[in-house]
Amino acid sequence: MVGFAVVGLGMGRGRAKLVTQTEGARLVCVCDLHEELAREVGEELSCDWTTSLDDTLARDDVDAVLVMTPSGLHAKIGVQVARAGKHVVTTKPMDVSTAACDELIAAAKSTDVLLGIDYQSRYVDTNFRVATALQQGIFGRPLLGEVRFKWFRSNEYFEHGGGWRGTWAMDGGGSLANQGSHLIDLLLWFMGDPTQVYGDASIMNHDIETEDVGLAILKFGNGARGVIVGTTTFPTNAYFSAEVHGTEGGILIDAALDGTARYFGDDLEQKLAAIDNPIHNIVEDLVAAVTQGTQLRVDGAEGRRTVALLETIYASSKAQTALALGAAS
Description:
Elements: E1 2-7, H1 11-20, E2 25-31, H2 35-45, E3 48-50, H3 53-57, E4 64-67, H4 74-83, E5 87-91, H5 98-111, E6 115-118, H6 125-136, E7 142-150, H7 155-159, H8 181-191, E8 194-203, E9 213-220, E10 225-231, E11 239-246, E12 249-255, E13 260-264, H9 268-273, H10 282-292, H11 300-319, E14 323-324
Parallel strand pairs: 1-2, 1-4, 2-3, 4-5, 5-6, 7-10
Antiparallel strand pairs: 7-11, 8-9, 8-14, 9-10, 11-12, 12-13
Helix pairs in contact: 4-5, 5-11, 6-8, 8-11
């Protein structure tokens, strides 16, 4: 059994429950600065609870820690976890800067622990099959990849939890960095890293530091193009979708978190259905990596890619010109 601790019980509450439902995993401890919340979740899931990260990391029965705090704390806490000799998983995005990501990658490497990023979209059957099919050439030559997320967020959403959302220091951006990072990761998984990025993240509506509407056009080395559209200003949470097509077919994934999709091309749905997805969430993935030596689906290097693209989109928007990927670093 791989012993897990969960730090940060906002998003972490659901992930703690997932640990209890996963074969080969044992929830040892939950940790949150808010004592009442930590006690409540600990009692609900029949595990120990604490408000102390140091106490959590001192436990011999904790093998891995899920870091589910605000984005700007992922690397800082992750480095502490790694230096304690525990495997590290952060929620998305990996952090708010590539510099912070690099610190965490280096810490995990120096202590020989695993580092994973919890991008749940990569574990959805349809998404895994599309990524595999693209690698196998089933879509032919890729031509265009798009991701779109049109959601509503109230002012109260940004004020909750001390107001960290929508700040550069803790959120790393706005609609693209927070709501959009799952789909941006998915686009990079499907299409690869772009060679050129043109971004526009200048539209504001909420009283926040970062963007409410984010747009980007990407050029890839094989001649394909990519499009990113994201907002938190839509009248309701409308959709969260991804689309890719090539010379031999295409797919519109209407709901990227559950895999509902439409297929375009001869026998494409049947071809994709034949592709098996062996892992279905980050906890399963980490258990397999620890016990069987398998490769994590999203390791530190993979998680860093989304942050590097976000940095370039924001730098392009500020400069009002297209930039090479990584030009912001």
